[in-house]
Amino acid sequence: MRAFFSRLRTAQAASGSPLHRRLRKISPMEKREEARAFLRAYFNENKKGDAAFRARWAEVRRDLSQRNHYEHTPEELAYGARIAWRNHGKCIGRLFWESLEVFDCRQVAEPDAIADRVDVHLRNASADGRIRSIISVFAPVTGEQVPAWIESEQITQYACHQIPGGGWLGDRQNIEATQIAKSMGWQPEGEPGKFDLLPWFLRDRQGRRIRYDLRPGSVREVDIVHPDRPGFAELGLKWYAVPVVSGMILTIGGVDYPCAPFNGFYMGTEIASRNFADVQRYDLLADAAQALDIVHSRFNPLWIDETLTELNRAVLHSYQQAGVTILDHHTAARQYMEFHAREQRASRRVAGDWRWLVPPQAHSAHDMFHMRMRNFHPVPNYYRNRGEDGLRLMPWYGDEYRRRPQIWKDRLMRRWKIWKRMAW
Question: Do you find a cis peptide bond into 192, omega within 30 degrees of 0?
């Protein structure tokens, strides 16, 4: 009886946890459908044969019937993580999806061990400046049991301090994260500045928040200077080399992995046009224009365009000078078009979100600006929460030959699943 109530309390705690509220809610039949679709794709693309698929599907079907869960093999996990990148409609850099290095960390469960693995991930990804695309996949969700997971959106983030008398100093999107860190005893070294590296937060299996400070030498930062304007360096700008995204959930074949930090490398506009220029981030356009001697007035409305271009020049120049991998937005757009052509040659339709894919600079100069896109949210994939983007995730059958009644049935079933998953 005591064991029963202990399990009941654990289930109740899990159901009320922040992670539990983010996870997709799918029925056993939907999980079974996703598992079968994933395994079919895995065996087809790897040319393993129909007999091998039937044998593996029998094992998975038995596990799902008995406990509504199954374990991926290391090969299936690696394939699923790469396909999730290929399917993610908000990423412009999917040309390199096959090069993703997948580290199977499912046996690493304790918070300190996860922190050690994250530190290794950071050091391996940056290496000598040539950024490696890496994902470290930790334990999945099994029933009501939630594993330890990383609460921070990214492992590396800059703090935002409130200035006495009003105003903010730092990255404004991290106001709450900074307040949480300070409430847990963190303080920046020396006087608060614009680029103080925040600690990152992990929740253990009981939902307790644990703070981990970034270890010395694990994060490489690049000072931003302009190739032609020495005075630009007085702004004291810098940014970190590797963006490790830790706030997304990896879903493969109906199984969710809430702790799966991954990284690629930066496109210049992400730093210059968004992180530095957005009002809700650093809002540095006016300061940068002054440092670049660009006339900032209502009689010169193109000062914004000039400043953004020079900011991008500075970021690209600084990363290249430091020997750190970075991509300009024109090259990234061309690579996306190459990825799109490859997928079409493989008879696969490309999921795409126009608002995320078209670079924030020189939009109409890129072919993708004129493309019609549709994000049909195929699985495997990555999602933030069930209300924002997890709601529409489901198998995609549009790349297969299907008779008209099957197509109508697919559309109806898709709408029914979305309607059922909504929080009415």
Answer: no
